[in-house]
Structure formats: C-alpha cells, structure tokens
Amino acid sequence: QVQIVESGGGLVQPGGSLRLSCSCATSGSIFRDYAMGWYRQAPGKQRELVGVLLRGGSIRYADSVQGRFTISSDNAKNTVFLQMNNLKPEDTGVYYCHAEPYGGKIGGWGQGTQVTVYS
Questions:
Q1: Across the chain, where does the E strand assignment appear?
Q2: What would the pLDDT profile of 20-51 be if each residue is shown by its tens digit?
Q3: Cα dist. 108→24, 97, 111 in Å?
Q4: What is Dmax (Cα atoms) for the chain?
C-alpha cells in the first residue's frame, strides 16, 4: 500500500506559478510499481487528469496544460512534482496525486491541495 501527501497549493494571480509536491511512502520505488498521476477537481466538475508519469519516465499531459505544466520526480525520495506556470483562473481546483498500480499492489490518493488562481 502507498501513503500519499500533497503539498504546495495556494493563492496565485493569473500568470503566476506554483509547484506541487507529492510525497509517497511505500516499500520500494513508486516509479517501478505505480503510474503517478496528477488530477484536479474544480467546484461542480468531475475530477480530471492533468498529467501522468509512467514507468520508464514517459509523461502525458492534458491538452489544457500542455506547455504550461511539467511533471518531474525525485526518485530517491519517492516524490513527484507538478510545476505549474502561466496559471489561469480555470486552473483553480483541488489537485490530487494518485498512484495507480501496475499490478499486485494497492494504489492510493492523496488528500488534495487547493490551488486558487484569482484576478
């Protein structure tokens, strides 16, 4: 099982930046056993995928954040980051980190961190 804690959310004006962290506690490497995804949920909307870090290091982004958001990782610390630049009001929401197991393990969600982009 994996324990996940997100941090780094906050208030920012349009055009600003934030860096979210997703710290994971598990036996072994999260990058070997899980696909690590960042999701967000705006008020009144469904949770949506922002981007995902796959085994081997490939990364996929939603079209809405492509070119503005970057996923990176610190393998030694089992931590995944989401660098968000040129933020827009529509980026507002609760951001969640999710570990999707490749097999044989239990995944998990973090508690979420609020990101608010206001004018």
A1: 3-7, 10-12, 18-25, 34-41, 48-53, 59-61, 69-74, 79-84, 93-101, 108-109, 113-117
A2: 999 999 888 888 889 999 999 999 999 999 99
A3: 10, 8, 10
A4: 46
- Residue type present at position 54: L
Q: Is 112 left (phi over 0), alpha (psi -120 to 50) or beta?
A: left
Count of CB atoms situated within 10 Å of the CB of 82 = 25
Q: Under 8 Å CB-to-CB from 10, ≥6 apart: which residues?
A: 18, 114, 115, 116
Q: Choose among 100, 99, 93: nearest CA to 10.
A: 93
Pairing verdict, β 3-7 and 18-25: antiparallel
User: With 90 as the cut, is the pLDDT of residue 103 above it?
Assistant: no
Q: Could you read off the pLDDT of 64-90 as tens digits, one per residue?
A: 999 999 999 999 999 999 999 999 999
- Please tell me the predicted confidence (pLDDT) of residue 27: 84
Report d(CA 76, CA 116) in Å as an integer: 30
Give CA–CA dist 70/66, Å, rounded: 8
Cβ 55 vs Cβ 32: under 8 Å: yes
